[in-house]
Amino acid sequence: MRTRIGPSDPNLRKGPGRTPPLWSGLAYGARVLAGSMIGLIALAFVLSRSALKPDLLRATAHATAGMLSILGLAAYSEGMTVVLGGFRGHMILECTAAFPIAILTGAIVCSPVPWRRRFSGVVTSSLILLAGNQIRLTILILCGAYLSDTFEVLHLLVAQALMSLLTIWTGLRWIVKNVD
Amino acid sequence: MSTDSAQPRVFSAWWLAKACVLTVACLPAYLASVPVIDEIVIRGAGVLTSCVGIRLHSEMDGSWNVADAPGPASMRRSMTFGGEQFRRMSYLSVALVPCTLLLFPSPARVRLRLLLLGVTAVLVLDAAMLGMSSVLLLHLCADSTSASSCRNMAGILSPWSLVTSLAVCLLLLRVALRPCRRWKTLALRPPTPPTPATPAPRPERRRRPL
């Protein structure tokens, strides 16, 4: 019996060596875009009105001061502000890892994989981003205290770019491991 | 699907370190090209906003101005948002995506194609978002900008660069790896010719004496 080679051939559509067609790639991109956008908008509009926001900012300031103390520096937190020497770093929502986590969570949740993998991906990615953000904040407070001339550039450009890169890397790693 | 452990790991911590160095090295070039990027994005967004009778343009201080198109109507609304720092952060995806794509483990030709595709996609998405935000801001916040939703709408343009970067990188990863059967190991590298299987000479088995 001759096998018909074409789009309707079931052997081309199934099996472990299936090559995803172009439209599925585009559809996946659209899903990721929609998911991360929904995550971002949901966070921006829900958390900004939520009572959790001050707690989140206080916790971030406290964790940053704690990390600086571990390094042997006399840093402390006053509410949402981290104090090191004469430098006072006030935390805002963009200082937390909330935006990257929301965006990546949206992208992961929209990926076509079993829910268990999505859940483990969200948890792992969130932990990586939280850790990366704490390191970023610690370095920024150190730069604010000791390299105040370069603080603005480091804060608004370099640290922002590196945090975005960490988010992209986490997403790429997860997709290579989990999405076929 | 199991990952072949013999293959080199893609997107390792070393890859991230290289991407960080490349991005930081590219930032001065990015800063220099922000006015050009802004011009392109504003033109694209202007085409979109002109469809609904709204004009969008850049101010000298780096902010954006959105206004109703001039006409006979006396009720002409106008508002300015953003700024130089904000503009730099909004277009950060134009620096991030090329740096990420340049380090994709694929042949140089494929990377160049991805780069062109990626930059185009990022510019289109940025223009679409800026156009959409401008229209919404003018309609909802022209009278009063004190509402938190107005601040959020303008502020969303900054994290939007992360959304576009992530979506474009994941999309291109998936599209670029389309022809590869084992795309988990990033077979985008030029295929190596299969080595002829030469069976190793088997040692003669000595029979145990009974």
SSE arrangement:
The complex is a heterodimer of chains A (180) and B (210).
Chain A: H1 10-13, H2 22-47, H3 52-70, E1 75-78, E2 81-84, E3 87-90, H4 98-109, H5 115-146, H6 151-178
Helix pairs in contact in A: 2-4, 3-5, 4-5, 4-6, 5-6
Chain B: H1 13-50, E1 54-58, E2 64-68, E3 78-81, H2 84-90, H3 93-102, H4 108-141, H5 148-155, H6 157-176
Antiparallel strand pairs in B: 1-2, 2-3
Number of individual domains of chain A? 1
Distance between the termini of chain B: 49 Å
Largest inter-chain contact set: A-B, 47 and 53 residues
Instruction: Give the uncertain stretches of chain B in residue-range form.
Output: 1-7, 179-190
Q: Please tell me what the overall shape of chain A is.
A: elongated
Radius of gyration of chain B: 26 Å
What order do the SSEs of chain B take from the amino end to the carboxyl end, as H and E? HEEEHHHHH
Could you characterize what this model shows?
- The complex is a heterodimer of chains A (180) and B (210).
- Chain A is mainly alpha-helical.
- Chain A has one domain.
- Chain A is built from six helices and three strands; from the N terminus they run H-H-H-E-E-E-H-H-H.
- The longest helix of chain A has 32 residues, at 115-146.
- Residues 1-17 of chain A have low confidence and may be disordered.
- Chain B has 210 residues and is mostly helical.
- Helices cover 56% and strands 7% of the residues of chain B.
- The two termini of chain B are 49 Å apart.
- The chains are: A mainly alpha (180), B mainly alpha (210).
- At the A-B interface, helix 2, helix 4 and helix 6 of A face helix 1, helix 2, helix 3, helix 5 and helix 6 of B.
